[in-house]
Structures are given as C-alpha cells and as structure tokens.
## 1
Amino acid sequence: MASGYRIGDQHALHFLTFTIVDWIDVFTRRVYRGIVIDSLRHCQMHKGLKVHAWVIMSNHVHAILSTPETALSDVVRDFKGFTSKAIVKTIHDENESRREWMLQRFVANATTTARNENYKVWTHDNHPLQMQPHFIMQRVSFIHQNPVRAGWVDQPRLPVQFGATIRTNRGY
C-alpha cells in the first residue's frame, strides 16, 4: 500500500529506499547484489540516472538519485521491474538453498496487488524524500553508516566527492 510519498519534482535529488517484500535477506548473496549494481549502471548509461550515494543492505537499498532529463519515477519503475525479473530468474537458475521459500513469499505478495501477476519482489513504496540542501550530507552519512551500524564494516568507505557518479561497488 502506498504511503502517500510521491516524487514531486522528477528532476530533483531524492533519497529513496527500495525494500524487498517481507524483509527477505536477498542481498546476502553476491549474485543478487550484482543484479542491482548492473541495473544501476545500465540506468546511468542509458536512462540518465545520476547515483550520488548508495548502499545495498541485506534486504533493502538506500540511494540518493536524480535524473536531470528523464522522469525519476520512470527510471525507478524500470529499475525495479528489471531487477525483480532478474532476481526471480536467478533464484530459479542458481543453486539457491532458499529457493522454494523465497519464491513462495514473492508469489504470496503478488496476490496482494493487481500490479504483479506472478511475483512481487520489491515493496511498492520507495519512501522518496526530495533532498533539501541542509539534509543532503545527513542522508549521505546515513547511507554510509548503515553497514557500520549493521556490523559489516568498521568504517564507511566514502566517495572522493559528493555528487560524483558512483561507478564501482563500495564493498558493502
């Protein structure tokens, strides 16, 4: 169910959270993180997506994104649609020990909405927050401290400068 948060200014800087349904720990496997990273790169190269900061946690992704020319809502829709299909296909194709359980949860969640026919991998809401200048560094810090708070790393690995297009995995 949508919370009422919407992307108003389609070209402004936004903090977004993409969450896997039922908080399933999909991204504990490198192969699924790779799908997200490859899709972000594709959106950068072909859809004008600017990735200003990001982190992939075990069951969600935080990012600060913008699209100077394309509607951000359209890019997010395409990103989530592609990654959903790729994650489900990979679950079917790989030696995934949680295959039956994960697919059952994705099918069960698909039955709760008319938007998904077979599988629902991501929750509908992205909780987009348009970034105001005084909150940008706070959100960047939140993103980079997330794996520290989770105990995955001792210190965040920060980009060289804020606003640079991120092209490589941050290692978390």
## 2
Amino acid sequence: MSRDVQKALADWLAGGGDRIGEIAIARGPAGWELRHAEDAGRADLTAHAQPEAARHLANLDPAGNFRPLKTAPTLVRGWRLLLADLAAVRRALDYFYPAMTGVWLSHTRGELVPVVLRETLGRQTGMYRVTQKLTDPQARELIDRVCAGCLKHRLWEIATANPSSPAFPAGNLPLLCHEACNLLVAQAREVVKKAERAA
C-alpha cells in the first residue's frame, strides 16, 4: 500500500478538514491560506508566501522565547501564509508540527503503535537510566503536569497498552503522541533524583 502523505492531506482537506493544532487552513484566492486559528477574520496580518516562513514563526513564542516543544499551545499570532499548492502546505505544516501529518497518516492506516511509558524508560541508559525507578504515582503526576502544556493527544499509557482508538472532532487533524517525549523523560529524571535526595 502506497504511503502518500500529501494525497492523504488533500483527501482530508477535500472532506472538510480545516484545522491542525492552532492552525486554520483554508482555500485562498490563489491556492491555500494558513493562519493562527485565533486570527480568524483579521485583515491586519503579515503575509508570507513561502512555506519556509513557518520555520521561523514556529520557533518563538509571543514573548520571543524559543519554543522547544512545537506542539505547545504558544504559537505566535499575527501572520498568514499564502501558499500556491498542497506541496507547500505540507512543507509548512511539517515546520509548524514536525512529522505530525505522517504520524496522523500512520494512525489512520492502523500502523501507529503506542509505546507504553515503562518501555520508553526501560530503554534509557547513562544518566537517564534512573528514570526506570519512577513510580506509577510519580508518573501520573508528571504526565498531568508536563502533558498539559502540549496539544498532542496522548495515545500511550504508563504500563499497559490501550487498544482503543479515540474519535477526534470532524475537520480537525489531530496531533498524536504515541510515545513519551524527551522533555517528559528529562523531567522524570528530575522527579526521581529529587525523591532520592529527599529520602
């Protein structure tokens, strides 16, 4: 079976898709327009015509701070991308949300396998090996705190795989998290080390 992310994106848009994360996607006068979803109806937006502009827009939050997590709900506002074709749309989306369209396609095809937290931590070595001592209560608190700052829908569990496939709002291409990220693993190390120092 062929894997054509751009065609899947085209089919999704043709079926009424119009949003991914904080970005609204619409047909424009000469192709496609992307803008922050909260800028709907604004006419005073700075226009960009190249998908590479998305890389710079995605890097800093409204306060000018670097955004290490591109799926944090802190995308800067005040811009619009006017793109000629779907190839440019896909490139821009990959700058805004790296790999997320491909992850979504894998999910729709039943190929995305969530990795439980215990397996992710079990692979850690060196200074991160200590994360394997993270308790379930510590893990739940950590997930609640760290994942709250991310727009991704978490598909993984702490120890047991969840076979269910969640439903998502029509028109919204979901940002999916199938494995704990490096930011969470780093925080897990801090939690364990802090508990060891307090013991």
